[in-house]
Amino acid sequence: MLGFWTIRHHWRSLAFAAAALAFAGAGSPSYAACGDGGTVEGIKVPSGQESATVDKICKQGAVRAAVAPFAPHGFQDSEGNFRGAGVEIAAPAVAKLLGVELKVMPVGWDTVVAGLQAGRYELVTTGLTYTDERAKVIDFAIFAVGGTCYIVNRDSNIKTLDDLNKADVTIGVYTGTSWETDLPKVFPNAKFNSAVEGAGGGYRVADVIAKRVDAAPIDNVAELAIQSAFSNLRVVPEGDECLKKPKPIDRVGIGTPKDEAFAQFVRDVVAKHQDEMDAMMKKYMTPEYIKVGG
Question: Do 193 and 162 fall within a single domain?
Fold first, then answer.
């Protein structure tokens, strides 16, 4: 069973330092007791009566945030610290406004939505791809737009996105991801091979290199890291086309339980901190941070 990871003290200090400085000398904001609701820092904080999720968080004294491996949106660095705009900016802000502790736990992509539904945590802070199927069972606070490109061997006959949609092409995906459910709709003529994602995250680079599959999806933000690490691979489409015209184009965000009052609260937190979150995502969108596997 996965244990909880509490964000280190200095992380909390960094996350809240800017807010503390902003209010210094100008009067501190008035924080109601957790569950009482109100408006703080211009954000409507729902009461326990308005939101079952808030009521639960207040009773347990903590908001629990899940992180699945997906750089630049969420990952652990070499020292085990959790990184990403959701876990470093949005989740601490949610905890602060509610007046509770923030606890962080690593999860796998195969169980991330089920865990949120089952109440094992209240936030999925990694960039969770929005799908119509997921939106039926959880809510979202969208904070970024991404998309999917594909890795193939450099000598592959696959040159374009249309080349992927052929009966003799096998695309490798990970179990439990939106790619497993959505890509067969995008490339209905292709075959699909599903595998359980390892604990380290990344993409199915090794399977493509070994030609166990013909292609595998990657997040478009990983293109530079892929090209830097694997000279024997190509990305389809290449260069700016991958960044600007991936297929499909996705919306990603923080996942929350089916609770509109709580979801809107998280959306308001994201909107308030969107510029900071954008800057952090750009920082982590480099080969230093993108884990490509293989």
Answer: yes
